[in-house]
Specification:
heterodimer; A: 116 residues; mainly beta; globular; B: 109 residues; five-stranded antiparallel β-sheet
């Protein structure tokens, strides 16, 4: 079956531009996570959804970052007024159960964002 | 909050030898400890996980041990093969999953 997909795979933005990153989780998966992975680092938690409810957004680095999952399936991570420090790979992961922090997460291929 | 330390950051082993990667965590409430493998340019994939009520788990050439008292856990890969070359991440989770910084494993021919 289809795994987690993300689009675009690569995004180049000029500093100050807004970007929107899309995640299509595995069908039926309840939990959805967004991570930021800087070069040579591990994924860093950004936010967590259980269905359409955003239960944890404590990892979002600033109010320029916003995520939504309005129908409990596809999710969008939006970054406003991008800065060079936002350059990273943004990973989405989904899990079939609520409390997806405690079971296997299935990762997407990531979106590599470069801010010039 | 939780803090996960992982070492070494880079590890080179001869093909056929064993590799060991160690992690420590700070939050005693963490009760789930997965290990992910990430090949260059690819997505992380779970290779093994362990829960806090278990001290050791094995799956073919891969094993993980957990010492809750000392708050450390380790990944052991035996009979290493070229396809084991990748970056390995440990993680600890309670209400939030926190990853280590990764270990780049090189298998030397």
């Amino acid at each position: 079956g289809a795994g987690v997909s993300q689009s675009p795979r690569y995004k180049v933005a000029k500093r100050g531009q807004d970007v929107a990153l899309r995640c299509d989780p595995i069908s039926g998966h309840v939990s959805l996570f967004w991570y930021q992975q800087a070069l040579g680092q591990g994924p860093e938690f950004l936010t967590y959804f259980q269905n359409e409810a955003q239960l944890d957004k404590s990892g979002l680095p600033s109010d320029r970052f916003f995520a939504e999952r309005p129908e409990g399936s596809v999710s969008t991570l939006k970054i406003q007024r991008t800065q060079q420090e936002d350059s990273a790979v943004y990973l989405c992961a989904s899990s079939p159960l609520a409390g997806g922090q405690l079971v296997e997460q299935f990762f997407g291929p990531g979106t590599r964002l470069t801010v010039l | 909050g939780e803090n996960v330390e992982q070492h070494p950051s880079t590890l080179s082993v001869q093909e056929g030898d064993s590799a060991v990667i160690k992690c420590t965590y700070s939050d005693s409430a963490s009760n789930y400890f997965p290990w992910y493998k990430q090949e260059l340019g690819k997505r992380p994939q779970l290779i093994i996980d362990i829960r806090s009520n278990v001290g050791e788990k094995k799956d073919q050439r891969i094993a993980v041990t957990l010492n809750k008292t000392a708050k450390h856990f380790s990944l052991h890969i035996t009979e290493t093969q070229p396809e084991d070359s990748a970056v390995y991440f440990c993680a600890a989770s309670d209400d939030k999953i926190i990853f280590g910084k990764g270990t780049r494993l090189h298998i030397l021919p």
